[in-house]
Amino acid sequence: MSDLAEGGVFARVKAADGEQAESALAAAENAQSALAATTIPERVAWLEAIAAGLREREDELADVIVREAGKPISSARAEVESAAERFERAVEEARGLNGEFRMGTTTGHEGWEAIIKPEPIGTVLCITPYNYPLSTTALQVAPALAAGNSVVLKPASKTPVSAAILADIVASADIPAGGFNFVPGHAGAIGDVLAGSDQIDAIAMTGSSDAGEHVARQSGIVNLHMELGGNAPAIIFPDADLDAAAAACTKGGLKYAGQRCSAISRVLVHESIHDDLVKRIEGEMDAYPMGDLFDEATALGPLISADQADWVEDLVIDATDRGAEIVRGGRRNGQKFEPTLLGRVPESARLVAEEQFGPVIPMTTFTDENHAIEIANSTDLALDGCVFTTGYDRALRVAERIDAGGVRINGAPSHGLGDIPFGGNEDSGIGREGIETSIEEFVRYKNIVL
Question: Which residues form a coiled coil (predicted)?
Answer without folding.
Answer: 73-100
